[in-house]
Amino acid sequence: MTMQEHIKADVVEPSKPCYILAIETSCDETAVSVIKDGTEVLSNLIASQIDTHQAFGGVVPEVASRKHVESITYMLEEAVEKSGIEPEELSAVAVTQGPGLVGALLVGIVAAKSAALAFDKPLIGTHHIAGHIYANALTSELKYPCMALVVSGGHTELVLMESEGSFQVIGRTRDDAVGEAYDKVARAIGFPYPGGPHVDRMALESDEVTPLPRAWLEADSYDFSFSGLKSAVLNAINQAKMKGEEIHPGAIARGFQESVIEVLVEKSVRAMHQFKAKQLLLCGGVAANRGLRAALQERCEREGIELLIPPMKYCTDNAAMIGAAAYIKWQHGESSALDMKADPGLSLEHWSVQRTE
Ligand code: KG4
Ligand code: ZN
After folding, report:
1. From ligand 2's centre to the CA of 314, what distance in Å?
2. Which of 18, 83, 96, 316 could join 91 via S-S bond, C-beta 3.0 to 4.6 A?
3. Which residue's CA is the closest to the ligand 1 atom numbered 7?
4. Mean pLDDT on 316-340
5. For a pocket test of ligand 1, which of 132, 182, 321 has the largest count of ligand atoms closer than 8 A to its C-beta?
6. Is 318 in the pocket of ligand 1 (CB under 6 A)?
C-alpha cells in the first residue's frame, strides 16, 4: 500500500466493542491511553515534563520533542499491556495532529503511524481542542446543542456544537490565552511555571484585592482579550516599585482572577442563552481553577444551566480525551491517510465530522 492510502477500518458491528489506542504529544506531556467505546478508560498513562521545563520558565520546544522520544515507545507498550486487550483487538490508532508544537506533535504522529502499520489499523488524526471538549464525554452523556468553554495554556474559545462532532468557534481570544496570562502574571509576582495553580491559591487566600480592568470588547462579541489585563498587572507592580510601596501578590492575584472569571462566566452564560444550548462544557487546563469552577457552578445553578466539568485528571493534557474525540470520527467511518502531517494550526471547524446526509 502507498502512504497516501488509508488503512481500512473493520466493518463496524454494533455488538463489537471499539478499542482506540490514543497518543497525545502536542506540548509538554507524553500521554498514551486505550479507551473502549469512547467512554471507558482502560489505561491512561501520562509522563509530565514540567520539572524539566521549570528551570527555563516555560516549555522549550526542542527539549519537549526529545523528552517525548525518550518516553513514547515504552509508554505505548505499557498502555496496551495495562488495558488488558491484545493489539489485534484494536479498532484504530488515534493521535493529536494539531494544534501544538510541531516537533512535539511529530513524535506522537510517527509513533501512531508505526503502530497503525504494525497492527494494520486505521489512523485517526485528532484535534487537540476537540479532545479537551470530548473529555467531558468520558464521564457524562453530552446533549446537543451544547457550548464548550475551552480554557487552556494555548486556547481560550467558546465553541458551539449543534450536533455530535460539529464545531463552530463563536468567540476566541484576540491575544493571550487565559492560561498564558495566568503564567505571565504568576511570573511577575514571583511564582514558577506553570503559575496558574499558584495564582488560584493566592487569589482565594487573599482578603485584599487590587482593582483591575475587565475587557468586555464590543457588546455583542464573544471574543476575549487578556493582554490589557496582564499589562495592568505589570503596571501596578512597576508603579508600586517606583513609589517604594510594598507589593501585595495576593491582592494582585485576586484582582486578576476576579477580572478573568467575571468575563469568562458572563460571556459563557450569554452564549448559552443566545444559542439555546443544553449544556455548558468547561474544559482545558484552566478548568482546574477553583475560583472559576465555583463561580460557574454558582451562576449556572442560578440560571438553570447544566454545567459539566471533567475530573481534574482529564482537564489537563491526556490521551484518553484524544481517544474520546477520535471515537466520534471512527463512528462516522472517517480516518486519515498514512502520509498525514502534523498541523500546528489545525482548524477545529474543519475537523468537524463530514456529514453526507
Ligand atoms: O490544557 P493544558 O494542560 O495545556 C494546554 O493545552 O495549554 O493547560 C495548561 C495551563 C497552564 O497555563 C496552567 O498555568 C493552567 O493551565 N492552569 C491553571 C490552573 N491549573 C492549570 N490556571 C489557573 N488556575 C489553575 N488552578
Ligand atoms: Zn491542552
Report:
1. 10
2. 18
3. 153
4. 96
5. 182
6. no
Rounded to the nearest angstrom, the distance between the alpha carbon of 26 and the centre of ligand 1 is 14
Of 62-71, 248-257, 307-316, give the lowest mean pLDDT range.
Answer: 62-71
Give the 3-state secondary structure percentages of the chain, helix then strand then coil, rounded to 5. Answer: 45, 20, 40
CB of 261 within 8 A of CB of 204?
no
Radius of gyration of the chain (CA): 21
Spatial distance between the Cα atoms of 32 and 18, rounded to a whole number of angstroms: 17
Q: How much is the average pLDDT of 209-214?
A: 95
Residues in the chain: 357
State which ligand 1 atom lies nearest to the alpha carbon of 154: 7
Strand partners, 308: 281
- Between the CA of 309 and the centroid of ligand 1 the distance, in Å, is 14
SS3 of 90, please?
coil
Strands 123-127 and 92-98 turn out to be: parallel
Query: Ligand 1: does its nearest atom lie under 6 Å from the Cβ of 289?
Result: yes
User: Hey, which of 27, 132, 286, 313 would you mutate to test ligand 1's pocket, going by the most ligand atoms within 8 Å of its Cβ?
Assistant: 286
Is 200's C-beta closer than 6 angstroms to any atom of ligand 1? Answer: yes
171 pLDDT exceeds 90? yes
DSSP 283: E
| Ligand 1 binding pocket includes 277 (Cβ within 6 Å) | no
Residue 347 makes CB contacts below 8 A (sequence gap 6+) with: none
The closest residue, in CA terms, to atom 4 on ligand 1 is 153
DSSP of 11-47, one letter per residue?
Answer: PP-TTS--EEEEEE-SSSEEEEEEEETTTEEEEEEEE
Which residues have C-beta within 8 Å of that of residue 304, sequence separation ≥ 6?
none
- Omega of the bond leading into 194 within 30 degrees of 0 (cis): yes
Residue 52 banded pLDDT, cuts 50, 70, 90:
confident
Q: Where are the alpha helices (DSSP H) in the chain?
A: 50-54, 61-83, 102-119, 128-134, 178-188, 196-205, 227-242, 249-274, 290-303, 312-315, 320-331
